[in-house]
Each structure stands twice: as structure tokens, then as C-alpha cells.
């Protein structure tokens, strides 16, 4: 990797729909209860878009907040990457809609689908574009309206997901920001996919009501997540010859409190080293890490000079981690 150009995040922003759906609200939709959801997942409530809002609306708002916090104008942006599995349309990309909405007249655009690892994949991509000297400022957004692909008859999945967006301005900077990344895939469809949502003809629904909606074998994804999260973090630390105690805060994908607890056990670190906000938002897929990162900054849990480790996993099955110095 070329070391001559330093790259890092210079501003973050978020967007959340105002409508709150609590566990008690879900009790009225499927056979479940607040106690089960809280104990098995740690989630208490999630945000849901109204029928007039879409992924690009959340992405636009988060992008505008990130640009403001970074002190960067839309015209300075060279590229917009939106990580999402819930685009407004099959075509065009959400990134192209955001480009128009914010007036980023000089920006190229594309969406990236790596499931819940999408935002980390996207910042690694932005890092490569900037390190190569091709671009200087890239807007990276993770935005989802998972409520639009949730099977509201399936109690094993509908309790997990929420809507939201987080955005970051990634730029060429003077000091080292991003240290390194670890991206990977264990190519598998069945544990987590949306049957009948694309060109592959659906012969029979794996469960009722899941056509074009999320279908998941929860236990398989759980096992994958637990294993891959600590493995990927340890790989990064080894690559950097860094002790785990040198990391000030971990920002894991916000899927399930028990997955985070198990990572702490495997890595032998205390839970206060892990940012958690899944109780308020549930699993927002590609938005989850940038949302948690933005809130960690807002709450003063990350300060300039801190070392931060992000780690995601999701459909694909993918994983992606990165270690960075916080530079603002
Ligand atoms: C989905 C998940 C929370 C389920 O938890 P679990 O402990 O594995 O629960 P199980 O699937 O074993 O179900 C246990 C029991 O609870 C029941 N149950 C499932 N969902 C329920 C709900 N919402 N409310 C009440 N009971 C429920 C099951 O039917 C089962 O009942 P049974 O024992 O009578 O068959 C868990 O597997 C998980 O978090 N997986 C990873 C999901 C994830 O992170 N996905 C996104 C990755 S990006």
C-alpha cells in the first residue's frame, strides 16, 4: 500500500426518521414481547420511514450534515459512494440522486452492495481512490430503509431491523488517518438474502411472505458474526503490530448485543470499549457503523488523536474492518 498520501475522515453526519417503533408496538404486529427481544438482541426500539420517505432522503440529509461538519462544499466532492441494500430504484443509484439533491456537480457516483459491511467496504474503496492520487475528497454514505424489505409476518427478523443513514467525508489529509483494512467474503446466499428480489426466478418461498423481503437463518448468521468479528479485528492488530489496548474505541456493526458481548469475551476486553446504540435503532445494515461512529463523536466518546476500530459483517456473507486515527 502506498504510504505517501494520508487519508482520513474529516466529518461525519447522520439522519434518522422521526417515527419510533418500539418493542411494544411490535407485540401488536407479531407474536413477540419486549422481554424476548431485549434479552435476545438488546434492541428496545427502531426508527421507521413514513411512506413518503426513501433511502435517498435519509442519505441526502446525512450527507449534508457530514459536509457541514467537515466544512466542505458539495462542489469540492469528487466522488459519492452510497453503501445500501435498499436503493430507491434498481436504477439509477442512490448516489446519483444524492449528487443531484446536494448539488455535488463535480462528483462521480456509484452505490456499493456489501450488506451490513457496506460502509466499511466503501471507506476502504475511498481510501484506495485517494491514495492512488485519483481523487481528493469523497463522500461515503451508509443509508437504509430496511423497513421496506422487512417481512412483517416473520417474528424472527422483523424485530431486528430499522432505518437510518450515516455519512462521512473522506479526504486527503496531512497526518495518517486510515491505518489498514481487512475485507472479506464467504460467498453464501441462503443464510441471509431477499428471495425473488432480482433476476433469479423464485420457485418457492423459503417461508411465507418473504418474496422481495429479508429471509435469514438467524443462528447461522449469529455463528458467522461471532467468529468473523474477532478474527478480523485480530488480523488487523497483527498486521499493524498493535496491542488491542491501544484501540480507544471499537465501533461494531449494531446487529445484536449478544454478538458484541461475545466479541468482548473472545478479545478479552471490557464492554465499555465497544460503542452500542442498537437499543435505539436496531440493525440499520450499512448505516449502522457510520450512525454509531457519528454518535460516538457527538457524545465525546471519541476525541482527536484516538485510535478507532470499525468492524462490520453481513449479507454475502461479508466482513470488513478498519483501524484509523481520529483526526478531528
Ligand atoms: C435472530 C436471533 C435474535 C434469534 O435468537 P436465537 O436465540 O437464535 O433464537 P432462536 O431462533 O433459537 O429461537 C428461540 C425460540 O424463540 C422463538 N422466537 C423467535 N423469534 C421470536 C420473537 N421475536 N419473539 C418471541 N419468540 C421468538 C423461536 O420460535 C424459538 O422458539 P422454539 O424454541 O419454541 O422453537 C439470533 O439468531 C440472531 O441475532 N442472529 C443474528 C442475526 C443478525 O445479526 N443478522 C444480521 C446480520 S447483518
What is the CA–CA distance across the termini? 24 Å
Query: Count of helical segments?
Result: 9
Overall shape: it is globular
User: What class would the helix/strand composition place it in?
Assistant: alpha/beta
Largest sheet report: 5 strands, mixed
* Beta strands, count: 13
Provide the list of bound ligands, each named once: coenzyme A
CATH architecture of the largest domain: 3-Layer(aba) Sandwich
In what range is the share of β-strand residues? 25-35%
Residue stretches low in confidence (pLDDT < 50, at least 5 long) are none
Count the domains: 2
Radius of gyration, whole Å: 19 Å
CATH superfamily of the largest domain: Thiolase/Chalcone synthase
CATH topology of the largest domain: Peroxisomal Thiolase, Chain A, domain 1
Task: Output mean pLDDT.
Answer: 97
Major sheet: arrangement of strands: 1-7-6-4-5
What is the CATH class designation of the largest domain? Alpha Beta
Structural commentary:
The protein has 328 residues and is α/β, with parallel strands linked by helices. It has two domains: 6-176, Peroxisomal Thiolase, Chain A, domain 1, CATH 3.40.47; 179-276 and 288-325, Peroxisomal Thiolase, Chain A, domain 1 (3-Layer(aba) Sandwich), CATH 3.40.47.10. It is 31% helix and 25% strand. The protein has nine helices and 13 strands. The chain has helices at residues 23-27, 34-41, 55-70, 94-102, 118-131, 218-240, 257-267, 278-281, 288-298; strands at 6-15, 20-22, 45-47, 79-83, 108-112, 137-145, 163-173, 178-188, 192-193, 215-216, 249-252, 307-314, 316-325. Helix 4 links the parallel strand 4 and strand 5. The chain is globular and about 55 Å long. It starts with 5 loop residues before the first strand and ends with a strand. 52% of the residues are buried. Coenzyme A is lined by residues 32, 36-37, 40-41, 116, 155-156, 159, 216, 218-219, 221-222, 225, 255-256, 283, 314.
Amino acid at each position: 500500500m502506498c504510504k505517501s498520501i494520508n487519508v482520513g475522515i474529516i466529518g461525519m453526519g447522520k439522519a434518522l426518521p422521526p417515527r419510533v417503533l418500539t418493542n411494544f408496538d411490535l407485540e401488536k404486529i407479531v407474536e413477540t414481547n419486549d422481554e424476548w427481544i431485549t434479552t435476545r438482541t438488546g434492541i428496545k426500539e427502531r426508527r421507521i420511514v413514513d411512506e413518503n420517505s426513501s433511502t435517498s432522503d435519509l442519505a441526502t440529509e446525512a450527507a449534508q450534515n457530514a459536509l457541514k461538519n467537515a466544512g466542505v462544499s458539495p462542489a469540492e466532492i469528487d466522488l459519492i459512494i452510497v453503501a445500501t441494500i435498499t436503493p430507491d430504484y434498481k436504477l439509477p443509484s442512490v448516489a446519483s440522486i444524492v449528487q443531484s439533491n446536494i448539488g455535488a456537480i463535480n462528483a462521480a457516483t456509484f452505490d456499493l452492495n456489501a450488506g451490513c459491511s457496506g460502509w466499511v467496504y466503501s471507506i476502504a474503496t475511498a481510501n484506495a481512490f485517494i491514495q492512488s492520487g485519483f481523487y481528493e475528497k469523497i463522500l461515503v454514505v451508509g443509508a437504509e430503509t430496511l423497513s421496506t424489505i422487512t417481512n412483517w409476518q416473520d417474528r424472527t427478523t422483523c424485530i431486528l431491523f430499522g432505518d437510518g443513514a450515516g455519512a462521512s467525508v473522506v479526504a486527503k489529509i496531512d497526518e495518517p488517518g486510515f491505518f489498514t483494512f481487512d475485507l472479506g467474503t464467504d460467498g453464501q446466499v441462503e443464510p441471509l438474502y431477499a428471495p425473488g428480489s432480482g433476476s433469479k426466478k423464485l420457485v418457492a418461498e423459503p417461508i411465507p411472505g418473504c418474496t422481495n423481503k429479508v429471509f435469514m437463518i438467524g443462528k447461522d448468521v449469529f455463528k458467522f458474526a461471532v467468529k468473523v468479528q474477532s478474527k478480523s479485528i485480530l488480523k488487523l492488530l497483527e498486521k499493524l503490530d498493535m496491542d488491542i489496548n491501544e484501540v480507544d474505541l471499537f465501533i461494531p456493526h449494531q446487529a445484536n448485543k449478544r454478538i458484541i458481548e461475545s466479541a468482548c469475551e473472545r478479545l478479552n476486553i471490557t464492554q465499555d470499549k465497544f460503542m452500542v446504540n442498537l437499543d435505539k435503532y436496531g440493525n440499520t445494515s450499512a448505516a449502522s457503523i457510520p450512525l454509531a461512529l457519528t454518535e460516538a463523536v457527538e457524545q465525546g466518546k471519541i476525541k482527536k488523536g484516538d485510535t478507532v476500530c470499525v468492524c462490520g459483517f453481513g449479507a454475502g456473507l461479508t466482513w470488513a474492518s478498519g483501524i484509523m486515527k481520529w483526526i478531528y
